[in-house]
Amino acid sequence: MGFVVPPDAYTRFMGRYAEPLAELFAAFSGVGAGDKVLDVGCGPGALTAQLLSLGAQVAAIDPSPPFVDAIRARFPDIDARRGTAEELPYDTAAFDAALAQLVVHFMADPVVGIRQMARVTRRDGVIAACVWDGPTGALAPFWEAVHLIDPDAEDEALLSGARGGHLSEIFEAAGLRDVDERALAVDVVHPTFEEWWEPYTFGVGPAGDYVHALDDDRRAHLESVAREHLGNGPFTVRATAWAARGMA
What we know:
This is Class I SAM-dependent methyltransferase. Keywords: Methyltransferase, Transferase. The chain has about 250 residues and is an alpha/beta fold. The chain has nine helices and seven strands. Helices cover about 40% and strands about 25% of the residues.
């Protein structure tokens, strides 16, 4: 999976959606000033930045070394570590909340990951996660173009949490209480087709892996089909995510 990439590549690829989503997701989680919060799968820090702006005390963890280095450079005063959701290196009940933005669908075992998030959160603390909806998420326009020429391509719609109700199922299987799920949507304006397309060539995530696996002719064909599908720009992508929260 293509996440050992330069942080700037990830930011240009997903940050344009993750940053506005972080504002909605943090509000949904109910985190506020003074709360001790763990950002699980922090990436280069879209959610961390939002939580800090709210006055939360943030710790962050991610399995990608470049992302951990980037978040340490960006926020030198926070505890940033390399690690996975399934093996969180923190004491039990160490946090008031544990949040995972755009991470659950890439966990090796989402139930174990959410259970670990609950373990490190105090009793009655908040565990929350969000995942792009498969058919209407941030990457849907890309996969729509792919399916026009490769109908059998496996996109991200089948990943954990990418359909309504699945995050709730994962949370309940992990033993969380009072689980609530809802849709969050952000509108992102792309001024040109090129601004939208170029980050897909950076090798980030499943979409980047797919583009990198194409030869030059097939990559050019996909670009042409995507341009015909979306237009030259400007155009707006409405990206919908499923968000769930529960109590430890």
